[in-house]
Amino acid sequence: MLLHHVFGLFTHPDAEWAQIRREHEKPLRLYVAYVLILAAIGPVCAYISTAHFGWTIGAGQQVIRLAPDSALQLSVLTYLAMLVGVFALGYAINWMARTYGALEEDDAANGVALAAYSCTPLFLAGFALLYPEPWFNALVFLAAAGYGAYLMYDGLPIVMDIPRERAIMYAGALLTVALVILVSTRVGSVILWNYGFGPVFVS
């Protein structure tokens, strides 16, 4: 099972990336056995905390909760956005491969693998949503994004088989793509909210 890579990416990432390259899993299997499972952590935890625990802004303030239907709707949309985001980043990695001297594949297996495994810290950070305090969640996800960026940089020369010097520019370009994907999801959220998919709060 591909989930055994989770521990290795935190303890010995270089060796784990080498093993991931040797496995060369097809994107569909990688999605079914890894991404679909880990990407669900954040949305499930967010649903539980926002619909049942609630959160406050400031001391002594009223607890804010989302209506269960609204929380479920937003969690499902977030989950779908995560799946699309990982897929888009993986294909961007593959699309840019030839520019940086790597092999461009027809099925983008290495690119999708690199994107999926680099997002592992962000997937696991979803557990922090069980404690729905904005400042705490922001710190956890900031740390997870930082380690995810490091994993991307560390894995690029190994998985894509390029010199480490080229990986710096490659990683910078991919960071830009990731930011574009992030902004696109934010814009998509605003559009969906205008069509009635916005949060519904309960006291």
UniProtKB/TrEMBL annotation:
Keywords carried by this UniProt record: Membrane, Transmembrane, Transmembrane helix
Residues in Yip1 domain copies: 7-184
One Pfam family matching this protein: Yip1
Highest taxon in the source lineage: Bacteria
TM regions (residue ranges): 31-57, 77-97, 109-129, 135-156, 168-193
InterPro entries: MFS_trans_sf (IPR036259), Yip1_dom (IPR006977)
Annotated membrane topology: Multi-pass membrane protein
Subcellular location, record wording: Membrane
GO cellular component terms attached to this protein's record: membrane
Name this protein carries in UniProt: Yip1 domain-containing protein
Lineage of the species this protein comes from: Bacteria, Pseudomonadati, Pseudomonadota, Gammaproteobacteria, Pseudomonadales
